[in-house]
Design brief:
Butyryl-Coa Dehydrogenase, subunit A, domain 1; 11 helices; Butyryl-CoA Dehydrogenase, subunit A, domain 3; 7-stranded mixed sheet; Butyryl-CoA Dehydrogenase, subunit A, domain 2; 9 strands; alpha+beta; 3 domains
């Protein structure tokens, strides 16, 4: 048995020694993204959040493209070809800055680019992916509708044939990047060859396409969120994604994006925990730091346990994805657990900060309100519970 003196010191920032699971290139990517977020986002994010806008989003997208963060785990067409774990580490660091920044990257790479990369024609890939990987073209993903969120099969957006063209009509709602996008991947019902849901690659300068921005949000305020309005948008025959029909297309994209959320939520949790830990060591009440009281230490210990369990879970799922063995039910497992625990960590952190916890001088309340959106987008808690319930019992309780 090795002697105790041979043990490495305990690291409060990495109490389980999870960095030992990472290769040097993993750490380099993580640290590069962390440095970028610290330089370009953190000095400004409180102001952006308070103003309810994300100024310079196109410049930020180009910088993220230079980092290789857009379509990061995709191969070819200017994409970085990083591992799933490396992409997850990037998501964690981006969301540690703000959920809105991670959402920009997630929608660009895991939804819009992934849809084209996996289901598009070679011509579509060559036309769009290099510019999107570079951040020169921003993409959005139109699935959710005003009346149909958790039930995308009931979508009303419709595409009909007119000669060799397609004509799209409908509305999409809560679309990240919508009003700044140069291309939209839009899912619509069709009636050709027995019908089915199809995906369409829509240049946003096409007549009939509009993307009014959604204002007055109390969550994801430093993020561009829009409605998509399609008023008889005429597209050529080659605008359709040729390699998929039905819900398998959009749902596989969502699964890819949810994987990034599993990591990202832990970034928001980490930032809040670190703020609470530092505050507890410096804030004095009754003549000593509040971190010296048992109740505060109990909160910190419980938060640390859930935070690093969540990171370990994300890492495990990433290894499975890299091995081609990650199932959608396992992604649901990760999103359900990690977002719920991240919100609880933020709320507990707020209690340690007391009244200061509601101030934008600290990141805690901003992360907490952002996570309220992350909790329900790309699958609500209830939907992921039912996914797992069906997998566990073999019985479908969705309807």
């Amino acid at each position: 048995m090795s002697s105790r003196s041979a043990l490495p010191p305990f690291d409060p920032a990495d109490p389980l020694g999870l960095d030992d699971l990472l290769a040097p290139e993993d750490l380099a990517i993580r640290d590069t993204v962390r440095t970028w977020a610290g330089d370009r986002v953190l000095p400004h994010i409180a102001d952006w959040y308070e103003r309810g806008e994300l100024p310079g989003v196109r410049e930020l997208a180009r910088e993220l493209g230079d980092l290789g963060a857009l379509g990061m785990s995709l191969t070819g067409y200017g994409c970085a070809g990083a591992s799933a774990v490396q992409y997850g580490l990037a998501c964690l660091e981006l969301e540690a800055a703000d959920s809105g920044i991670r959402s920009l990257v997630s929608v660009q790479g895991s939804l819009a680019m992934y849809a084209i990369w996996r289901f598009g024609s070679e011509e579509q890939k060559q036309r769009w992916l290099p510019g999107m990987a570079a951040g020169e073209i921003i993409g959005c993903f139109g699935l959710t509708e005003p009346d149909h969120g958790s039930d995308p099969a009931a979508m009303r957006t419709h595409a009909k044939r007119d000669g060799t063209d397609w004509v799209l009509t409908g509305r999409k709602m809560w679309i990240t990047n919508g009003s700044v996008a140069g291309v939209a991947v839009v899912w619509a019902q069709t009636d050709e060859d027995g019908g089915g849901i199809r995906g369409f690659v829509v240049p946003t300068d096409t007549p009939g396409f509009a993307a009014p921005e959604i204002k007055h949000k109390w969550s994801l305020r430093a993020s561009v969120t829009s409605e998509l309005v399609l008023d008889e948008v005429r597209l050529p025959a080659d605008a359709v994604l040729p390699e998929v029909t039905g819900l398998r297309g959009p749902l596989s994209c969502l699964s890819h994006a949810r994987y990034g959320i599993v990591w990202g939520a832990m970034g928001a949790a980490r930032a809040s925990f670190e703020a609470a830990l530092e505050y507890a060591k410096t804030r004095e009440q009754f003549g000593r730091p509040i971190g010296g009281f048992q109740l505060t230490q109990a909160k910190l210990a419980d938060m640390a346990v859930e935070l690093h369990k969540g990171i370990l879970l994300a890492h495990h799922l990433g290894r499975r994805l890299d091995a081609g063995r990650l199932r959608p039910e396992q992604v649901s497992f990760g999103k359900l657990n990690n977002v719920r625990e991240a919100i609880e960590i933020c709320r507990t952190s707020r209690t340690i900060l007391g009244a200061n916890g509601i101030s934008l001088e600290y990141p805690v309340m901003r992360h907490a309100t952002n996570l309220e959106s992350v909790l329900t987008y790309e699958g609500t808690v209830e939907m992921h519970q039912l996914v797992l319930g069906k997998a566990l019992t073999g019985l479908d309780a969705f309807r």
